[in-house]
Amino acid sequence: MKVADIREKFLDFFASKGHTKVASSSLVPGNDPTLLFTNSGMVQFKDVFTGKDKRPYTRATSSQRSVRAGGKHNDLENVGYTARHHTFFEMLGNFSFGDYFKENAIQYAWELLTTVYKLPPERLYVTVYQEDDEAYSIWNKQVGVPAERIIRIGDNKGARYASDNFWQMADTGPCGPCTEIFYDHGPEVWGGPPGSPEEDGDRYIEVWNLVFMQFDRSADGVLHPLPKPCVDTGMGLERIAAVLQHVHSNYEIDLFQTLIKAAAREVTAQGNAVDLTNNSLRVIADHIRACSFLVVDGVIPGNEGRGYVLRRIIRRAIRHGYKLGCRKPFFNALVGDLVAEMGEAYPELAKAAAQVQSILKAEEERFFETIENGMAILDSALGALPKGGMLDGETAFKLHDTYGFPLDLTADVCREREMSVDEAAFDAAMNKQKQQARAAGKFKMDADLAYSGVATEFKGYDALEVANATI
Ligand code: ATP
Ligand code: MG
Ligand code: MG
Ligand code: MG
Fold first, then answer.
1. Could you report the per-residue pLDDT of 263-302, keeping only the tens digit for each?
2. How does pLDDT run across 368-390, given as a tens digit for each residue?
3. Ligand 1 in contact with 330 (CB < 6 A)?
4. Where does the Alanyl-transfer RNA synthetases family profile domain lie (predicted)?
């Protein structure tokens, strides 16, 4: 089953259960200035859950484009290292706004997985929140999942991979337990079941999260039952596609294979040999999706906020191309291939293709001017370090400041070579430069004011000294 069919089957299944199909919203959330990117299907419905916004339906289904490359959910550092994380992915979801609750949500999920997608039930594991006996009993008694495949999980706040089965929008507001469905890719793949010490492996992969918004947490921490509990679910399209296409890594699904081949074509066109299983091709294939869709949604590369996240992802992709031998732009050439794969599901992508390509190309041309010299500096600095060494902050800062290497890019190169970077020293170097710039700016402003004849108040020698001392 191809990715496009899997998406369609999901939406059609929930439409047949009375859900309204709702289009994906933008990656730039329109209703939440505190959120960097739309990172799940529920984002566009946030106000509907709290009752602030009303819709003509109480059941909805969507395939939401999502980015997790900054802010609360950041999977940028997982890309290229796990089989299941992307910076950009599609989240399939079904939502109940005060309509059905746990029973239906669980039954629908099970029906879709075992009868529409026809997954063998014995490969499915579920987790429930440790105190959620209701969800446990629905899985066990009504659905018939045996006790040995139901795992109770607590809230592991702050753990990088560990399952966390209590969901909350923020410190206050709607929250509740969740239940997650995992697929066992088999003993050939390393990893352990959820809750075990090996759960960060790729054997048992979380495919679907069903969140039960059951409480409203007040500022004093007390949980008040919501009068109309809601359901919010999210299933990674690429993950379920891997399961249905009998491959264990998301990067082996049809959509990614096409993008990986396209990336290899560009690398080869520049005279380099590359194996299709090369990890850098995977990273490039991941990043072309995130970068293109971010531009479609109005983000442009820049030095701050969303624009800087985009710039960092583009530059990471370029660095991987550089590693494979590319010495001139290649990344923007993948936009056409992406449109061929996803343009039908996302007409806004097809429409903006030319603009996306030209923005990526400009950014690429810019970084290709400095990457070679920057990499030479980084190579020689790392070459001088002992095994497991730490790159000094001054060099990392020089790479950032003069060669346009974002810190995370430098850190990624270090990580590949089993080294690290002194981030505290990098921050110190950055702060020092900021202070200098501020002082220089103040000095210049005073001079400009004096020159323009505006009277400046004499603040004493101390102030002058401070300004001069840091120049
Ligand atoms: P994981 O534990 O694997 O990082 P998660 O618990 O952070 O996933 P949720 O927030 O529960 O993920 O999101 C719902 C679903 O979206 C997940 O069950 C998974 O199928 C999918 N998903 C989450 N993050 C990613 C990602 N970075 N790339 C691809 N799919 C993802
Ligand atoms: Mg995660
Ligand atoms: Mg998880
Ligand atoms: Mg989850």
1. 999 999 999 999 999 999 999 999 999 999 999 999 999 9
2. 999 999 999 999 999 999 999 99
3. no
4. 1-471
